[in-house]
Amino acid sequence: MELRQLEYFIAVAEEGSFTKAATKVHVAQPGVSAQVRRLERELGEILFDRSDRNVRLTAAGMALLPHARAALGAVANSRLAMDELVGLVRGSVKVGMITSCASVEFAELLAGFHRDHPGVEISLSEATSDRLLDGIISGTFDLAWVGLAGPCPGGVASQVITDEKLVAAVSHHHPLAGKSSIRLQELADQPLICLPKGTGIRTCLDQACASVGFAPRVALEASALDLVMQLAQQDLGIAILPESLAAYSSDLHPLAVTKPSMRSRIELVWRADEGSSPAAKALVRHARAVLSKDSDDK
């Protein structure tokens, strides 16, 4: 039994056609047919029902399929492991991020990894923190930047990037602009501007408000913190923002939130088990090293 026989067998099973399978594996159709027949002779079983226009797996074929996929997967992983051993990493990595993480530093981190490992293909997607965490657990993402209000779920490892208080920010024309702080309960009837549900900041706000007995009145939602700030600058409501971001804007007046205060974190997260690919492990190492260096430089 040869690996190419298993490869052709899987291609026919997935495509339902010897002709389409031949196109997929870039081999002439007679070559694919010949190798599958040879595999059938070696196993002493018919793997495909060829009596109809569409080729279908027989019971023997269905029994073989998961084992054939596992065998080819093991070979691919072995190759990746050997590449890693000699310092050559190939493959692909899937990165997730929340919109508020977009920055020059983030782009430079990915660019540095690409320079070190040009054989690794990088894909990047944006989503809310809850979806990103689900993606890390399911394997949809190898690494993600997420916003958190509480601890990471089981099976997820993390490194803190930022941890800071959330504040209420208003325009300089707002009635509250003369105050330096505000109790959370005083926001109960105020129109708030915040990130949508599923984000770390929104989760933090919802949980804090629930702890003192009310649901926040979020009048305006925006997926980017820049837009949250701009809406507050136009006096459309009170923005819930990280303290450093509110202080950075000369067009907003920050108010410390008390009783209770609120904190939100940005964290780098990845799977805690050893099931990650060599490429994913290399990306995690690179990201953690960059973040640690940035922390030491501050």
Report on this structure.
The chain is an alpha/beta fold and 298 residues long. It folds into 2 domains: 3-85, Orthogonal Bundle (Arc Repressor Mutant, subunit A); 93-298, D-Maltodextrin-Binding Protein, domain 2, CATH 3.40.190. Helices cover 45% and strands 24% of the residues. The protein is built from 10 helices and 12 strands. Strand 3, helix 5 and strand 4 (120-126) form a beta-alpha-beta unit. The protein is elongated and about 85 Å long. The chain starts with a helix and ends with a helix. The relative contact order is 0.14.
Biggest beta-sheet profile: 10 strands, mixed
Distance between the termini: 59 Å
SS field, number of helical segments: 10
Estimated radius of gyration: 27 Å
> Which regions contain 5 or more consecutive residues with pLDDT less than 50?
none
Strand fraction band? 15-25%
Number of domains: 2
Order of helices and strands: HHHEEHEHEHEEEEHEHEHEEH
CATH architectural category of the largest domain: 3-Layer(aba) Sandwich
Shape: elongated
What is the CATH C-level name of the largest domain?
A: Alpha Beta
What kind of oligomer do you see? single chain
Secondary structure category: alpha/beta
Record field, number of beta strands: 12
Key terms:
single chain; alpha/beta; ten-stranded mixed β-sheet; 2 domains; 298 residues
Write the layout of secondary structure elements.
Blueprint (H helix, E strand, L loop, with lengths): L2 H13 L2 H8 L3 H15 L4 E2 L6 E2 L1 H27 L5 E7 L6 H13 L3 E7 L2 H10 L4 E6 L7 E16 L9 E3 L8 E3 L5 H12 L6 E4 L3 H9 L4 E5 H6 L3 E7 L3 E10 L6 H20 L1
Parallel strand pairs: 3-4, 3-5, 7-11, 8-9, 8-10
Antiparallel strand pairs: 1-2, 5-12, 6-10, 6-11, 6-12
Helix pairs in contact: 1-2, 1-3, 1-4, 2-3, 5-10
